[in-house]
Amino acid sequence: MGVEEIDLKAEETKVKKETLIEGGSKLSLKRLIPVPILRNLLLAIVAVVIFFFLSGHLSAYRNYQLSQVGPYVLAILGLSVLIGQNGQISIGHGALMAIGAWSLALLQIHTKLPLGVILLLATLITTAIGGVLGLVAARLRGPYLAGATLALALGVPDIATRYRSLFGGYQGLQINPPSPPAFLGANFTPQQYLAVIDVIVIVIAFIFVANLVNSRIGRDMRAVRDDEIAARLAGISVQRTQVFTFAISSGLAGLGGGLLALVASNVSPGAFSVTLSISLLSGLVIGGIGTMAGALWGAAVMVYVPQWATTLTEKFNMNQGIAANIALAIYGILLIVIVLAAPGGIQGILMRLKGLISGRGRQRATKG
Amino acid sequence: MTKLITLLLIGASNGLIYAVVAIGLVLIWRSTRVVNFAQAAMAMFSTYIAASLIDRKVPYFLAFILAIVFAFIMGSVIERTLMRQAAKGTPISSVIVAVGVLITLEALAGVIWGANLRNFPSHFSLVEIKTGGVKLGISPFDIYIFVAVLVLLLALVYLFQYTKLGMMMRASAFAPEVSRLLGIRVGRMLTLGWALASAAGAVAGMLAAPRVFLFPNNMDAVLVFAFTAAIIGGLDSPVGALIGALVMGISLSLIGGYLGSDLENPGAFVILVVVLMARPQGIFSSIAERRV
Predict the structure, then answer these.
(1) Average pLDDT over residues B223-233
(2) Per the count of CB atoms within 10 A, which of A192, A356, B174, B273 is most buried?
């Protein structure tokens, strides 16, 4: 009883604080720093610094687990911009992750560029390829686009097995995991370093997407999503907006793929099956389409549900192969239930709970 | 030259299997404007049912029919419980729910029957027939595929062209409101459409399994090939889907034979994109309206 009460109170004060911030009172951060981009930057730097110190207290395994979440956050964020903001569907973002991953691997093997530059280049390469694919995608709608992207997801991994000398065939390519620079001290583990890289990359991507979504281009995306004819009448180029969104979304997936390559220190066709693409779609829907926090929930589900399933199967002495399938079954069932019963996903449910507590539920619910 | 003929025959035989899946997609598209991305997974699941029946010493053809009955029921249940709800949402919700069914069935199959490859009996020999020392390039199994697909197609043509039930199904797909006014239970017709598509899928699954083996993802590629075939045919023409499927089967067989089997899946993507760009309404569609 007692604990629950305290929890509720803590929630209440938290909500109150947030209403204060939103309301623009004297304490508001909005008032303190009126420029949104500076405000976001400040929050981002605070987040990175906090995580930097926090990561030192986590075990190597926890850090590794956290760094596994990062790639999926980015890919789901990309998918979220595409589906949530622009109304284009993709069952092929796993293929775009693959393009980013192989770009990173090839750059790391054949050049001596620093890690940041390689990640940026891998992102740009995937963005460019995504732009070309976007030209096709912009002419397709609904199930046609879904089918075409599914075909992409099926086709891309086979390119790697076909051109063995370049892409490494079934075994794929090995990547050297990045080693932490010396100034971070001897106690700084590679796992911790990866987790920190992850958080920095995610924070940058979040700032980028937050600004994009609130910009004119973001409004164009939503206008095209809601009514193409009306958008065209308002002077928006539907095709250009769609191609642009597909390119940006691909870039984010490519960046995620690059991170995945770093975390796994290997890029092989088996890691980028059709199942990955479908899992990303599941993660997006489960987390909440169109919201940025939803990408975090979705990615967490993608990493922690399979691990939870593995512990479960070990407990009951079941076959290892079953664990992966239990996780997939959970995604599938959640996917169906959420689309039919709670289209906002986890983030939608959280927002509704928050709304109920603060008594502003109705306004919030209709907003989403 | 013999290689070419062999590839053409294998391609045609595979094409017939894609045709059955593609016709399932067309059946559902015509009545509900949904592309059933779960079509191939449903086929895989029914094939596993047949496989476990055969493991329990049930004769091949009895298992075949029982699996079709199972597929029929599964199709109606999925339509009734899930797809009808999804249809109330945005067009994307139907796609996502179908993908949800796809992944759930694949995962369930993995949990129940394990994720490893297994054999599926072909009942007929897969070895080429020889007459007087000359290989004909086709096996008894190919003939069986041909006969089974032909019987299935004729049955569907008969249903849709010559029976009252088929007419009612076509009417509900074409004009649901008017059909409802005329006393047709449109909802039931939609369920029946899904049930038939699922049953056809089961036939395709059991015909495909001896060649591609049986495992939870074994029909993923077939789904993409059949989808492409249906698109070539315009998505709403069963005959178009059949021709599209033969085109796909033969093209992929040639790509696999001359360029390498790793290029079959990328090849399917290229064919799909070219068709969608050049003639999005399909080559055989009677409808001039652009639906893409």
Answers:
(1) 92
(2) A192
Q: Model ipTM? A: 0.89
Of B96, B114, B264, the CB nearest to A339: B96
Distance from CA of B25 to the nearest CA of A (A): 12
Contacting residues of B for A274, CB less than 8 Å apart: 217, 220
- pLDDT tens for A10-67 read 444 444 444 444 444 455 676 777 777 777 788 888 888 888 778 777 888 888 888 8
Judged by CB atoms closer than 8 Å, whether chains meet at A282 and B100 is answered as yes
Q: In this structure, are A43 and A75 located in the same domain? A: no
Residue A201 is encoded by which pair of tokens? 């990359």
Print the domain residue range for B103. Answer: 24-219
Question: Best mutation site among B84, B222, B224 for testing chain A: the one with the most A CBs within 10 Å?
Answer: B224
What is the C-alpha separation between B14 and B288, in angstroms, rounded?
Answer: 30
**Pairing label, strands A173-174, A266-267:** antiparallel
Burial class (CB in 10 A: 0-12, 13-18, 19+), A34: exposed
Q: Do the Cβ atoms of A257 and A126 come closer than 8 Å?
A: yes
Same domain? A302 vs A359:
yes
Range of the domain at A310: 273-368
Nearest-angstrom CA–CA distance, B15 and B118:
23
- Nearest partner of A97 among A273, A343, A230, judged by Cα: A273
Same domain, A124 and A254: yes
Number of domains comprising chain A: 3
**Minimum Cα–Cα distance from A340: chain B residue:** B86
Distance CA(B181)–CA(A187), nearest Å, equals 77
